[in-house]
DNA sequence: TGTATTACTTGATCCAGATCAACGGGCAGT
DNA sequence: ACTGCCCGTTGATCTGGATCAAGTAATACA
């Protein structure tokens, strides 16, 4: 359970055995079955969650009832409604499991306490958030600047695993496209553009 | 020059006078005149920049030559091509000044060194990036989920200062709209929807 | 203080991608 | 093995916002 976690943390900061065991104490383990919810829109998001096994999705449902994917998180990724978690406001995202999953959860209070006890973890999360921000910034520009086909090709190149692992209709939603549109785009690409 | 800077840092972490003077030594001050560039697409972004006075914009230019705004930064905000800065890759954004501006620049090497000497700054940047990430995540969903009019109204409510301070055609670009579209939207709103 | 350049508006037309509709194929549960 | 249904495909049509075009107001600059 913690193996995947430590191997990820150790890529960014070093930890003693002592620190590792302190670290563990701030987390709670949770299993989630396929289709089970970790968070529902309207609640306050209490946890930052590390995925040690499985696959989760985070998505928003608009007034018309349409789903809009925010992100997918599998082994080695964190997920949360980070806005809700940070500012203690109502969540805008739902998070549920696309596959049976194993998680490590930490509350905001524990995160604060943990980083005070082990300041290196501020560095870990600083780097984590910095990298996520960088990626999200590029995705936002891509979303405003490119055609549907260009966006799909960019995604396929930058994140081929997502395309293998996540159903096509959810990929469409992630790109802000109708499922029919993505289907047609893939057909065109297969026919040599 | 550093007054605005310290007042912002102190909102998130406390600092001794000693630490303040150490902190200062890692930054370089820079003035930028209106229309002058801080960064051009294709370079590597060497600095994370704090705006102590003025207004900058960060934007991407696509193959057709169209500009797509990424963000605006005024007093108390940071700007950078964070992807380029973090991963030492070619910048995708241009950054230039919309008003005469005063900046504090820090290199990646100095940022790393500074956070090692003053670990509290890891916490400062952890919180900064966490908040930016939260905001960007919401903006991305908004961009994929709402109509042009809804996006404008949301922006006007959540960030009225931006609308006052930034020219309308740049706001349009920030929202991923043609300037004509935003003009019409504002007209409709003025006419009572 | 005049003129040039840039910002904003308004109208007419166009198009990428959404929506609606119908069908086939795979796989999940009994 | 059967059946139900979810998922992807394909076709036909519609539409929000882009694009093209022209005029007007505002700001800068000399």
UniProtKB/TrEMBL annotation, chains A, B:
Residues annotated as domain Cyclic nucleotide-binding: 30-114
Name of the protein in its database record: Cyclic nucleotide-binding protein
InterPro entries in the cross-refs: cNMP-bd_dom (IPR000595), cNMP-bd_dom_sf (IPR018490), RmlC-like_jellyroll (IPR014710)
One Pfam family of this chain: cNMP_binding
Coiled-coil spans in chain: none
Domain of life: Bacteria
The organism's taxonomic lineage, starting at the top: Bacteria, Pseudomonadati, Bacteroidota, Flavobacteriia, Flavobacteriales
């Amino acid at each position: 359970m913690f193996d995947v976690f430590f191997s990820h943390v150790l890529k960014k900061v070093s930890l003693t055995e002592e620190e590792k065991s302190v670290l563990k104490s701030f987390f709670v383990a949770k299993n989630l079955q396929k289709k089970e919810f970790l968070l529902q829109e309207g609640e306050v998001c209490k946890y930052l969650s590390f995925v040690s096994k499985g696959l989760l999705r985070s998505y928003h449902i608009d007034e018309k009832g349409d789903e809009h994917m925010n992100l997918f998180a599998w082994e080695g990724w964190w997920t949360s409604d980070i806005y809700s978690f940070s500012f203690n406001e109502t969540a805008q995202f739902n998070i549920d499991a696309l596959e049976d999953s194993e998680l490590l959860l930490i509350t905001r209070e524990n995160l604060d306490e943990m980083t005070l006890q082990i300041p290196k973890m501020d560095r870990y999360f600083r780097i984590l958030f910095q990298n996520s921000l960088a990626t999200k910034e590029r995705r936002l520009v891509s979303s405003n600047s490119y055609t549907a086909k260009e966006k799909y090709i960019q995604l396929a190149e930058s994140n081929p695993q997502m395309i293998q692992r996540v159903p096509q209709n959810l990929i469409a939603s992630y790109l802000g496209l109708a499922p029919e549109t993505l289907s047609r785009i893939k057909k065109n690409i297969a026919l040599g553009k």
